[in-house]
Amino acid sequence: MSSLIGLAALVSVVDAKFNYPLTQILSTYPNIESCVGLPVQYSCENTTVLTDSCCNVAPGGLVLQTQFWDTHTGLESQGQLLPQGSWGIHGLWPDNCDGSYNEYCDLSRQYDPTPSPSTLPNGTVIPPYKGPSVRTFIQDFGRYDLLKYMDTYWVNQGAPNENFWAHEFSTHATCTSTFDVACYEPGYQEHQEVVNFYETVTKVFQMYPTYNMLAAAGILPSNTTTYTLSQITNALYSQTGAVPYLGCYSNGTILDEVWYFHHVLGTEQYGHFKTLNSSTPSSCAETGIWYYERTVTSERVVSY
Q1: Is residue 11 over pLDDT 70?
Q2: What does pTM read for this prediction?
Q3: Which residues are the active-site residues?
């Protein structure tokens, strides 16, 4: 009996250390049985009419995996730190095939407490969300492993992480057909598609270790050395086979964004991502680009 009590105590200690309550993990995958046997085709390249929007990414079939390079968070005192040796997640965006895009496509699934934009081009006002945060949605599905990863690599600046995550779901996932509620029937559980979207974002992010690809080519954050656009572009092209979008501010001199473009075969959740050249011109200057070091106290050591 004493050994069992000791074991229980050990489990409790380990559990407390990692903040993982012992809870049931609920499934989040959609129902794609109807997709079996349909023509297999990439988004934006289909030669036949799509018959099931749960099986293909539509209409936003030009899918962008986007990342940030921030040097601080503004909430370091609250433990909100950036991942050392890694860029951070921005999102997974469903641009239309012509490069245009839609936002906030389903206001019944609007979880963004500070919508941006607050009004759509057609005049529709986006009401701020005032309910439980999306963090609680992830907890309700028992996905504390996912939550830990998101808090590590999907970090907001100047506001809580969950506000950023809520914005990305509400703005982009609601415009992605494979995350429609209907794709999770029968047996849909509330917020199932939200958690599934976050799983998908983190999975696709891991396809592109931007920091490591640049570092391996001798391009490291520096407060004393600048780089050229061709140096950065060529380093990433050599590993991805496509030219990504590179974003810079301050007259194109400070690097802070990278976007990887794709067409997707099948669902956004589990399909194949084909890397494409960016359809958006870089906002960076040709020379004199700063890839600044982060503030030392703004980073945390992470594991891969």
Answers
A1: no
A2: 0.92
A3: 90, 168, 172
